Amino acid sequence: MHKIPQEIIDFFETQGFAIVSTLDKNGVPHSSCKGVVRVGEQGIVYLMDVYQKDTFNNLKRDPRISITAIDEHKFKGYCLKGKAKVLMGKKITPLIQKAWDDKLTSRITRRLLRNIHDDKGHPRHPEIQLPRPEYLIAVGINEIVDLTPHHLK
Length: 153
Description:
Helices cover about 25% and strands about 35% of the residues. By secondary structure, it is of the alpha+beta class. It has a six-stranded antiparallel β-barrel with strand order 1-2-3-6-5-4. The chain has helices at about 5-15, 55-60, 95-115, and strands at about 20-25, 30-40, 45-50, 65-70, 75-85, 135-145. The protein has three helices and six strands. The chain has a domain at about 5-90 and about 130-150: Electron Transport, Fmn-binding Protein, Chain A (Pnp Oxidase, Chain A), CATH 2.30.110.10. The model has no long low-confidence stretch (mean pLDDT about 85).
């Protein structure tokens, strides 16, 4: 596993979500949004997934995964590549519930604040309609790609 610098940990943990890419049964990339629960310095990233569907099935077949997040305003981003394990069961339920509640509260708060400032987004709070996650994805990171163009570093 690859040790993750604090700057990258902070970057991912402040993102509302990250784009996760896995490979389907034909080897074709599948991308979806996932919530970042925690990024460990020793190289493990924990993600939550609200649907037990394509990403879940892809990871059961092939654990290779990439996690990408960007900040368009700062023109900065990273892609973390590694191998994933699906974690399920009663031991992880409290972690998922706490992380989900925190993410949901944060997303709704941000939406309300942006709406107050006349940056109207979705007329409802779609986050509330999402199902609770039932499993975590633990990713051992073996490569970090800095997406910031070299001339802007």
